[in-house]
Amino acid sequence: MTNYQNTIETFAALRKAQGGSWDHINPEYATRMKLQNRFRTGLDIARYTADIMRKDMAEYDADSSQYTQSLGCWHGFIGQQKMIAIKKHHGTTSKRYLYLSGWMIAALRSEFGPLPDQSMHEKTSVPDLIEELYTFLRQADARELNDLYRELDAARESGDQAKEKAALEAIDNFETHVVPIIADIDAGFGNEEATYLLAKRMIEAGACAIQIENQVSDAKQCGHQDGKVTVPHEDFLAKINAVRYAFLELGVDNGVIVARTDSLGAGLTQKIPVSRSTGDLAHKYNAFLETETVASAEDVREGDVVIKQDGKLVRPVRLPNGLYRFKAGTGEERCVLDCVTSLQNGADLLWIETEKPHVGQIGGMVDAIRKQVPNAKLVYNNSPSFNWTLNFRQQVFDAWSEAGKDVSAYERDQLMSVDYDTTDLAIEADQWIQSFQADAAREAGIFHHLITLPTYHTAALSTDNLAKGYFGEEGMLAYVTGVQRKEIRQGIACVKHQDMAGSNIGDDHKEYFAGEAALKAGGKDNTMNQFG
């Protein structure tokens, strides 16, 4: 017997036990509503999706071609349409996640209006968006199941037993749109207690994976901007501990922590940690500081900070704003130490924020990390902040030059030009871009590839195209040819926007509740019927 039929029988028995007072409740309708709401709470979602991530991580460890992907979504509707599209085009949501970008929350979801990615937005907007995304994904489940219920009813009405069986199998084998969200908590929005409190809210909203970075919370910058300031390892590990305690307190024992290091692009620190013995974490962190030797008390100025380092007195170079500077060229070494330390102290995955998408550079750091933590793996930002076209054309140019191939027809600094679009170099660069994720998963330990803010750009691009035509000579034709006709011919369900917003679900529920007296919206005069 199917799960659908089992649930009907369970509700039928429950109705019978009420001595007739529930006779107006249809067990099959109750079953349909229950199956449409598989996840009762955000914690149900967090536990379910954490198990998915752990399974995917193990499969990647066994076979690097089994990497995972996501796109950043700034609204529940965007996340919903993404997952609907994935199921339509690829047949399964397997190994496809959502990413929640702090950058996009700052730019699009703050009550202050658009803000830079500097942790100035309301911290509550992070769990609010997680909850919103899952609300829309659960509604996608309800809508798709509702369509299957209608197919089942139609098959029964026509007496087609084969279609009835197929509909029942589709209901029982239904794959949810609910997938893991990797959620950005920035630098924790305060101290470790603040981090813990926010992490709890995020997990309660459904987050199974929390990404946290090692920047100073009140000086946080976008990973692709200048002026980044890191914290000592002890401070960062305290926040990793805070997130783990939040997972454990809420019963999400498989929760995933993504430790992000910005050290590659961060040349500053706010604090000099206390070293208690040679070789401890503070000693290693301080060894990267740019210092000046202090020979005597005469070398010390008023207000100077002096530390003993490897048996010598040195003065760390301090800027007018009180921050301390790291030695130039130490970024990669600091990244490796950050990553090893994080993994050895509770983190599950790494995020290295780089200045360009270069498999060799990323792979070199991962190789160094794996000498100490063999199963280290990355979440990597395929960032829109990179000029992908120029970067990869230059990488091909450099590879050709090194191989002795003639590159005299190309000017390296001008390779973004449309004049190069049809050249052999540009074609090979596009092939490198196309295979970047598979190459980096294989050669650079990248388990999860994401684009942080793609839907920010797609919204701007599609709006620009529509505005250009609609307010110009094309008028209404711009919408019809650029949007609606494409929706119809590409089978985009959202063309029936009333149905997407829940009109058919509401009609069916009204019938469950009120029977023939239900006032429905989807009758013959509903213009949605024009779309078939």
UniProtKB/TrEMBL annotation:
<dbReference type="InterPro" id="IPR006254">
    <property type="entry name" value="Isocitrate_lyase"/>
</dbReference>
<keyword id="KW-0460">Magnesium</keyword>
<keyword id="KW-0479">Metal-binding</keyword>
<keyword id="KW-0175">Coiled coil</keyword>
<feature type="binding site">
    <location>
        <begin position="223"/>
        <end position="224"/>
    </location>
    <ligand>
        <name>substrate</name>
    </ligand>
</feature>
<feature type="binding site">
    <location>
        <position position="184"/>
    </location>
    <ligand>
        <name>Mg(2+)</name>
    </ligand>
</feature>
<feature type="binding site">
    <location>
        <begin position="101"/>
        <end position="103"/>
    </location>
    <ligand>
        <name>substrate</name>
    </ligand>
</feature>
<dbReference type="InterPro" id="IPR039556">
    <property type="entry name" value="ICL/PEPM"/>
</dbReference>
<dbReference type="InterPro" id="IPR015813">
    <property type="entry name" value="Pyrv/PenolPyrv_kinase-like_dom"/>
</dbReference>
<dbReference type="Pfam" id="PF00463">
    <property type="entry name" value="ICL"/>
</dbReference>
<dbReference type="GO" id="GO:0019752">
    <property type="term" value="P:carboxylic acid metabolic process"/>
</dbReference>
<protein>
    <recommendedName>
        <fullName>Isocitrate lyase</fullName>
    </recommendedName>
</protein>
<feature type="binding site">
    <location>
        <begin position="381"/>
        <end position="385"/>
    </location>
    <ligand>
        <name>substrate</name>
    </ligand>
</feature>
<feature type="active site" description="Proton acceptor">
    <location>
        <position position="222"/>
    </location>
</feature>
<keyword id="KW-0456">Lyase</keyword>
<feature type="binding site">
    <location>
        <position position="260"/>
    </location>
    <ligand>
        <name>substrate</name>
    </ligand>
</feature>
<dbReference type="GO" id="GO:0004451">
    <property type="term" value="F:isocitrate lyase activity"/>
</dbReference>
<feature type="binding site">
    <location>
        <position position="452"/>
    </location>
    <ligand>
        <name>substrate</name>
    </ligand>
</feature>
<dbReference type="GO" id="GO:0046872">
    <property type="term" value="F:metal ion binding"/>
</dbReference>
<feature type="coiled-coil region">
    <location>
        <begin position="138"/>
        <end position="165"/>
    </location>
</feature>
<dbReference type="InterPro" id="IPR040442">
    <property type="entry name" value="Pyrv_kinase-like_dom_sf"/>
</dbReference>
